[in-house]
Automatic annotation (TrEMBL):
Pfam families: Sel1. It comes from Phaeovibrio sulfidiphilus. InterPro entries: Mitotic_Regulator, Sel1-like, TPR-like_helical_dom_sf. The keyword Secreted does not apply. Transmembrane segments: none annotated. Keywords: Signal. SUPFAM superfamilies: HCP-like. The keyword Signal applies. This is Sel1 repeat family protein. Residues 1-27 form the signal peptide.
């Protein structure tokens, strides 16, 4: 039996469009506390004290982290009102994540009664300062009509801006939009391939798998089992899991000659090695 796969992402249908774009709970989207060696070896209480001292001196990043500490109860009793206050101070210091977190506070009513107009204004400011996550949030709001007039056009504009700002999620989502002709868009396999490639280059596992599907099934181009094998191997080594993955790999290997299989395997290893080198943190 032949294994079947399909292009997937946040927009498998227009009604599933918001699954990827919807903002997670605030606690799940916070930056980690400052990562100095000292903070990694001291108690949560001492870390809180140090961060608070820096925040009170006007350090915007420390203000943001202090808000996270209050929200999650790190080194201090959980206090949503104080968390929101420090997110607001971080926003006033022009920290994009500060505006974003403040927007989520207004959106879900954390530390306040909730105010969608203020939430929208905060997300817009964060997006203007270049935060891709805020651009995706605005896209989600326009797609759903939550807090704004529903507009697929405006949603796609913000999603495109997020992709241009190197959001891998946004790029993969746009790939699915254009591959399937969703959200009032004309099906455009060339544009879809371009977005999937961008997302894959940024390490997006779903986009890597989507490229494999394109080459395997010949979507918008000639079928290329060798190239499909390469991308499926990259996905597999990156942690992608699917019930039919082993069957797909067996089928692709069976369609190729031994030297072609070896070449695809070597190409996958080179891609992974190049990706690791490009994304190796500076010492």
């Amino acid at each position: 039996m032949k294994a079947k796969t399909k292009l997937t992402g946040a927009l498998a249908s227009a009604f599933v469009a918001l699954s990827l774009l919807a903002t997670p709970a605030l606690a799940q989207s916070q930056p980690q506390a400052q990562q100095s060696q000292q903070q990694r070896t001291i108690s949560a209480e001492d870390a809180f004290t140090l961060v608070k001292q820096n925040a009170e001196k006007g350090d915007g990043a420390a203000m943001l982290t202090l808000g996270t500490f209050y929200e999650q109860g790190i080194g201090v009793s959980r206090n949503f009102v104080s968390a929101m206050e420090w997110y607001k101070k971080a926003a006033d210091a022009n920290v994009p994540e500060g505006y974003y977190n403040l927007g989520v506070c207004y959106e879900i009513g954390m530390g306040n009664a909730g105010d969608m107009k203020k939430a929208l204004a905060s997300f817009q400011k964060s997006a203007q300062l270049g935060l891709p996550q805020a651009m995706q949030k605005l896209a989600s709001m326009y797609f759903s009509g939550e807090g704004v007039g529903q507009s697929n056009k405006r949603g796609l504009e913000w999603l495109s801006k997020a992709a241009d700002a190197n959001s891998a999620d946004a790029a993969n989502t746009l790939g699915v939009v254009y591959s399937q002709g969703l959200l009032d868009q004309t099906k455009d396999e060339k544009k879809a391939f371009s977005y999937f490639t961008k997302a894959a280059d940024l390490g997006h596992l779903e986009a890597i798998k989507n490229l494999a599907v394109i080459h395997k099934d010949g979507l918008g181009r000639k079928k290329d089992p060798a190239e499909a094998l390469k991308w499926y191997l990259i996905a597999q080594k990156g942690g992608y899991q699917a019930a039919d993955l082993d069957l797909i790999l067996t089928e692709l290997r069976g369609a190729l000659k031994a030297p072609e299989v070896k070449k695809a395997e070597e190409a996958a290893d080179r891609w992974i090695e190049d990706f690791r080198k490009k994304n190796q943190p500076a010492e």
